[in-house]
Amino acid sequence: MKFGHFDDARKEYVITTPRTPLPWINYLGSEDFFSLVSNTAGGYSFYRDARMRRLTRYRYNSSPLDMDGHHIYIKDGDTVWNPGWQPTKTELDSYACRHGLGYTILEGEKNGVSAAQELFVPTGDACELDRLTLKNKTNATKELDVFSYVEFCLWDAIDDSSNFQRNFSTGEVEVEPAIIYHKTEYRERRNHYAVFWSNTPVTSFDTTRDAFCGVYGGPADPQAVRAGHCSGSIAHGWAPVGALHIHVTLAPGEEKKILFGLGYIENPQEEKFTAPGVINKERAHAMIARYATDAQVDAARKALADHWEALLSTYHLESGEEKLNRMVNIWHQYQCMVTFNMSRSASYFESGTGRGMGFRDSCQDLLGFVHIIPSRARERILDIAATQFEDGSAYHQYQPLTKKGNRDIGTGFNDDPLWLIAGTAAYLRETGDWSILDEQVPFDNDASKAQSLMEHLRRSFNFTVTHLGPHGLPLIGRADWNDCLNLNCFSEHPGESFQITGPSEGPVAESVFIAGMFVKYGHEYAELCDHLNLADEAAAARKAVDGVEQAALTSGWDGAWFRRAYDAFGKPVGSKECTEGQIFIEPQGMCVMAGIGKETGQAAQALKSVEERLDTKYGVVLHQPAYTSYQLNLGEISSYPPGYKENAGIFCHNNPWISCAEAVLGHGDRAFEVYRKTCPAYIEDISEIHRTEPYVYSQMVAGKDAPTFGEAKNSWLTGTAAWTFFNVSQYILGIQPTLDGLKVDPCIPHTLGGFTVTRRYRGATYHIAVDNTAAVQYGVKSVAVDGKPIEGSLLPLAPEGAVVEVQVTMG
């Protein structure tokens, strides 16, 4: 069942009913100011950090769902309605929501009045613009009262939701004609405030929630809207809001536009210490003046459209697969950009108050983003590396505003160091910018301990070398990629727990998955050493990698698949010896991607076991059989009910690992089959089952053991976005950046007769046409560059500004 449709020409998803299975959202902003907006105008806004600089409130556990947001009310006589249906839920005569690239348009009509609420964050500015277009379609004059309403968060979202005894006394606002300033915390910090305004003279206003909604009222039926005017309330503590009321007269056929804006203003450091409670409004006035007219707003919208057009043109596909084109060219890269900005911090499933930016998460996000804006990827790599410790380990998460490690989450995830190598190597393959390795980067953000980024990578690599267990496999620590597989969480003595101390004492649980990572990214590290003429170090690295690879082929092999791990007592996890959790997806994907067992047949056997034991119609489950009871020696993984999340759910994040692995073995049909099962455009028809947005990936789908098999959760912010784009662009379509240039090595379904990719790479533009009239799955027969045949499939580097024509024939 569908609840809308794709409009590829406008690069939009058009939702045709407000009653979607869950709120379907969009992200506005791509720099510092961000808003989340749902198909019924729910959502919230923040500046850079969803916890520390939250501008508006959002109640995740609220019922009814998704009532807080960017709401506009229209009062037409006794009828009150919203362009996006919520929160009044007045039935509309027509409705549509258009989620586009960095903007959302809500279109509603009631009693002969049409209203379009257009929301976007302009490039280069810290504000959200909401433009309302009203049109009278009747033959009679319409007298309308329009109200725009936001509820301010008192900046720190955690404190705002818990410290009521203080916050009920601290809320402060200031009002000018058509402008409301929210300055809570300005008295203390004196450097930032929010501004809510309209470009149209207002009839009335409110700044207290009690006055606008009523003490026992709410957004669904605000007393001010019902009365047809606001009271002019000034907030002194309690709950500050911004409510602007404008009376509008529309002649028959007349159309009017009204702009509402929500902005963040931060004074420069030298102006920070002004008098308590006195705000400098000069920057707010300048911001408001930038969008005073429709022409200015139109120009901002065009600049936003041009911005996204430039970003997405970096990689463009034309093939006979409409859905594949749609995902690669529009939605997939768009989600990669959003995920790069947000990591896992702020969505409709993550409140933005705890996780911040993930070390592992952000490194993986680079894989799908680095080709879009390499300069921002460079900056992110240096931010991530600065949270590393001198021994090569790292904080698992850090806060985006301070860029400091998140001590609440801590350390001990032993896969983290290797992801830094993965992200940096991807950047170097894309850009050839070797200067990044010379950048001085602190350890634990301590400038006195700064070393080159290359030294950080060296310590990342050596962390695994110095943390091997009794089977020669890497120690898992607190967890590896699967945060819920906690194999060191108990001891033989009740009430005691292991402390993660090192390889020679304490926990000895080992990870076959990290072994696969170490082989894959260890080889990439050795290649970096080669390019830096560090021959001895490259040789030593490969020797260490070879040792772990042999351990994976012996102690890590279970006979028909790779084991997952060894627990703290040396017992195998993910083995036929286990009653439950006999086979896991992660090591099969990562080990085969690393080439482990490719020549011996073990890789092919492992993938065959995945297809036979883990595959379902909605994707590959994480493990089988599911755990039916809690097992202390495994930790949190067994705390979930069977089929959900880490307990045998379909983790979309690592499904592309299996697709990549199949491509490594040349299995184009199977690689594409795995890709399609979790790809949004291919499963749009089951939206009533899937429930999350049909235009972006979700983190997980309930597995076959779950009562809600096929239901997704945790959409938008997931490593699925980067890994699946990495898979489809580099493994399936096979356009692969290397340290020495682009390599073309497709692995496609035999039914795909060919395709063309336009790829910007290191300043040049490559038009790559792939001919598969031979109907093969894998294999390049010939390559011609600008009409001249070349040996192999590595394209020679072209000078900046060049346009290169490449013809590839498969066979």
UniProtKB/TrEMBL annotation:
SMART domains documented for this protein: CBM_X
UniProt-listed GO biological process terms: carbohydrate metabolic process
Domain Glycosyl hydrolase 94 catalytic: 307-734
InterPro entries named among the record's database cross-references: 6-hairpin_glycosidase_sf (IPR008928), 6hp_glycosidase-like_sf (IPR012341), Gal_mutarotase_sf_dom (IPR011013), GH65_N (IPR037018), GH94_catalytic (IPR033432), GH94_Enzymes (IPR052047), GH94N_CBP (IPR037825), Glyco_hydrolase_94_b-supersand (IPR010383)
Domain Glycosyl hydrolase 94 supersandwich span(s) in chain numbering: 11-292
Keyword annotations of the record: Glycosyltransferase, Transferase
CDD domains reported for this sequence: GH94N_CBP_like (cd11754)
A GO MF term: glycosyltransferase activity
Top-level taxonomic group: Bacteria
Gene3D superfamilies found in the cross-reference section: 1.50.10.10, Glycoside hydrolase, family 65, N-terminal domain, Maltose phosphorylase, domain 3, mpn423 like domain
Protein name in UniProt: Glycosyl transferase
Organism: Faecalibacterium langellae
